[in-house]
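Q: Convert this sequence to structure tokens.
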Amino acid sequence: MMAGVSGIEVVVAHSERATLRVGDVFLKVDTDQARIDVEVAAMGMVPVPTPAVLWRKPPVLAIAAVPGTALGRLGEPSTASSAAWTAAGSAVRKLHDAPLPPWPGRSLDEHAARLDAECEWLLANDVLPADLVRRNREIAEAALRPWRPVFVHGDLQLTHVFVDDDEITGVIDWSEAARGDAMFDLAILTLGHEERLDDVAAGYGGDVDLDVIRGWWSLRSLSAIRWLVESGFDPFAPGCEVDVLRARM
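A:
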């Protein structure tokens, strides 16, 4: 056993991947090595703090823990300061101003097709009230427009952004990094924490389209519910995806 290590923490686990914490080391096990390829490549390219890669032996990637604490958690109030959220917005701007990665991201047509399929599933299985699905499907249309591609994180949940003393100390989980819509990253960062959007926007600077961000809130929530349920997560928990959809009514 490693010195000072009292046990192993399962950070997240589902059929596609699992992350374990052993002391100050995170072990990421992934069934798709292409995702790990993207993660390692992205962390080597971006102008924001990322975890250090310690070693890689497929299917495992070992990375060092970053200092600080996560900006917050979906479904819970964030205790981070306004200055920390503003710093997060500034870090996202640095990422979006960076040179594009050489690999593409999900296209507009792919987003639209997934949204259609997931809304059909939600209605066919009576998962959500029809008026809730249809209203949010209308709101999601704002996100489905051509965008100028930027370097996006692709899964910029607030649990993936770490801060210490109002400074960004690390951004983790880069497996979805690609070319994409800048407003998508801002929407995922503020999902379920709409009250923090002004702080993030202040740090990010101009070019923040609130209608598009709201569209991505609805699109992301509608599109994720089936996967979350099938993977053992609860989108119906207070403050989570279903509550995000209800807030749009």
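The CA atoms of residues 229 and 235 lie 7 Å apart.
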